Amino acid sequence: MSTNPLLLRGDLLADATNSDSARRATRFHSETGVRPTLATILVGDDLASATYVRMKERRATRAGIRTRHVDLPASTDTTRLVDTVAALSDDPDVHGILLQHPVGEHIDERTAFDAIAPQKDVDGVTSASFAAMTLGGTGFASCTPGGIIRLLDHYGVTVRGANTVVIGRSPILGKPMAALLLRRDATVTVCHSRTRNLADHIAAADLVVAAVGQPELVRGEWIKPGAVVIDAGYNPGNVGDVDFAGASRRASMITPVPGGVGPMTIATLLSQTIDAAEASVDSSSGVAGPRPTAE
Ligand code: NAP
C-alpha cells in the first residue's frame, strides 16, 4: 500500500515521557524530601542482562530517580533471591523493584517475581500485576506491552475492534500484550511456536505485534495493506522480528528497530517508578494517592 509508512518513533515519545518523569521526580523530592528510588537486582554475569540493567539505571539517574543496585552471584538459589526481593519489598526507602529477567534456570523465577510487593512492581511482572492487566483494577502494566500501548495511543492508532495478532506468548511480553489489547476492546489472536499457518493469521490483522526473538520471522508480504506493525523483537545486529523493508511497503505505520519499542520499555519503567513513589505517600498529606496504573 503505502511506500512511506508513518514511523512510530518510540525514541521521541520516550524522550518526552522521560522529561515528564524528571519533572515529576523533582516535584516529588521537593514536596517530600525523598527521592523516588528504584532497586535493581541482577543475578549472574550475563553480559546482555548487565548491559540492560546499566542502561535502565543510567536513564533512571537522568530522570532524577535514585537507583540501588543488588548484584547476586549465578549460584544464588530461589530462597536467597526471594529473601533479597522480600527485604526490598519491606524497605520503605524503595519505591520500585526491577528483577532483571532471566534469573537462571535453576531459580523459580515466578516465585521470585511474586516476592515483589505489588505496589512496587514497576516492571509489571508479578501475578498480581498480571491479574490487574487481565481483570482490571490497580496494578502496573508490564513495561514492554505498557510502552507499546502508550505508543499506539500517542499516534492515535484505533485499537477498539481491530483484528490484532500478537506473535509470542511469554509472561513478560506476549501474554500481557494480549491482555492489554483485549482491555482496549481489540479482537486478539495470540500466535506461538505451535501455531499453524502463521502467515494466514498475520494477513488478516489490522495490527501486528511481533514478540518472538527471531530475526525477520515476519515477512513483508504477509502484512495486510494498511496494517499497523509493532516490532518488539530485538536480535543481534539491531534486527527486529519483522522484515522492515518488506513490511514498510505495505504497512501504514511501523516501529523502527532500534528506536521503536525498546526506548518505550524503559520510559514506562521510569514513569511507573514515579507512580509508585507518589502512591507510597499517604494521600492525606495531599501529595498523591494510589491510582490504577495498568493500561
Ligand atoms: P521468549 O520468552 O523467548 O518468547 C518467545 C515467544 O515466541 C514464545 O511464546 C514462542 O512460542 C514464540 N515463538 C517462537 N518461535 C516462534 C515461531 N516460529 N512462530 C511463532 N511464535 C514463535 O521471548 P520474549 O522474552 O517474549 O522476547 C521476545 C522478543 O522481544 C525478543 O527478541 C526480545 O529480545 C524482545 N524483547 C524486547 C524488549 C524491548 O524492550 N524492546 C523487551 C523484552 C523482550 P512458545 O511459547 O510456543 O515457545
Give a brief outline of the structure.
With 295 residues, this protein is an alpha/beta fold. It is built from 10 helices and 9 strands. The protein has helices at 10-32, 47-62, 78-90, 109-113, 127-135, 143-154, 174-183, 198-203, 244-248, 261-280, and strands at residues 6-7, 37-43, 66-72, 96-99, 163-167, 187-191, 207-210, 228-231, 253-254.
Question: What keywords describe this structure?
Answer:
295 residues; alpha/beta; Rossmann fold; six-stranded parallel beta sheet; 9 strands; 14% strand; globular
Describe the protein in words.
- The protein has 295 residues and is of the alpha/beta class.
- Among the domains are: 34-118, Rossmann fold (3-Layer(aba) Sandwich), CATH 3.40.50.10860; 142-261, 3-Layer(aba) Sandwich (Rossmann fold).
- 40% of the residues lie in helices and 14% in strands.
- The protein contains ten helices and nine strands.
- It has helices at residues 10-32, 47-62, 78-90, 109-113, 127-135, 143-154, 174-183, 198-203, 244-248, 261-280, and strands at 6-7, 37-43, 66-72, 96-99, 163-167, 187-191, 207-210, 228-231, 253-254.
- The strands form two sheets. The protein has a six-stranded parallel sheet.
- The protein is globular and about 50 Å long.
- The two termini are 31 Å apart.
- NADP nicotinamide-adenine-dinucleotide phosphate (NAP) binds at residues 144, 167-170, 172-174, 191-195, 198, 211-214, 217, 232-235, 261-262, 265.
- One of its GO terms (biological process) is tetrahydrofolate interconversion.
- NADP(+) binds at residues 168-170.
